[in-house]
Amino acid sequence: MNKDLPYTFKIPDYSNVSKDSDYQAKRYWINVDVPSNKSSIHISYKAIRGNLAKYTEESRMLAYKHAQKASAIDEKIYVNRAKKVFGTLYNIKGNVASPMQFYLTDSTRHFIRGALYIREIPNIDSLQPVINFLEQDVLQLVESTEWKDVK
After folding, report:
1. Are 45 and 6 in contact (CB under 8 A)?
2. From the CB of residue 91, how many other CB atoms can be counted at a distance below 10 Å?
3. How far is it, in rounded angstroms, from Cα 109 to Cα 145?
4. Which residues contact 17 (CB under 8 A, 6 or more apart)?
5. Is the pLDDT of residue 121 over 90?
6. Average pLDDT for residues 90-108, to the nearest whole number?
């Protein structure tokens, strides 16, 4: 991963990292691409400046935008006090474009939001094996996240 990012995490050998090239992308935004599964984990980063509640609420709202097509949305709180990484994982069930989303923060300086996207027509019957496989990658990313100071 890029050493100039204010965060780091582990990714599988079969994935690669690229700078987010979307016109709205900000500094430190990246994509973790898994070409063999036509999928990407979009990572956006924001520095916290007294606006943590706003960022967490935006993340929740983006996850729940899928509620109309989702059969369920499971939320799981994530806490790693030793690394100062806290957040929420959203497992979105059903025929949705983004079956997993999350945010992570140290609650004082750093905030990242992640969303798994599969570039296929959302069909849970055919995509469930891919989602199950990629879920482990997302969990590894979350569990290995650490914050860094960037100058």
Report:
1. yes
2. 18
3. 14
4. 1, 2, 11, 30, 31, 32, 33
5. no
6. 93
* Cα 141 from Cα 135, distance rounded (Å): 10
Q: Model-level pTM?
A: 0.91
Q: State the Rg of the chain over Cα.
A: 15
In SS3 terms, 61-128 reads as HHHHCCCCCEEEEEEEEEEECCCCEEEEEEEEEECCCCCEEEEEECCCCEEEEEEEEECCCCCHHHHH
Alpha carbons 58 and 74: distance in angstroms, whole number: 17
Strand partners, 60: none
Q: Which domains does the chain have, with CATH numbers?
A: 7-147 (3.40.1000)
Summarised one tens digit per residue, pLDDT across range 36-49 is 888 999 999 999 99
Give the chain's end-to-end CA distance (angstroms, integer).
Answer: 17
Contact (CB, 8 A) for 112 and 45: yes
- Distances 67 to 87, 97, 115, 130 between C-alpha atoms, Å: 20, 11, 15, 21
Q: Distance (Å, rounded) from C-alpha 119 to C-alpha 102?
A: 19
Which residue has 């967490």 as its token pair? 56
In degrees, rounded to 5, the angle at the alpha carbon of residue 102 between the alpha carbons of residues 18 and 94 is 100
At 147, list the tokens: 């914050």
Q: What CA–CA distance (Å, rounded) separates 31 from 39?
A: 10
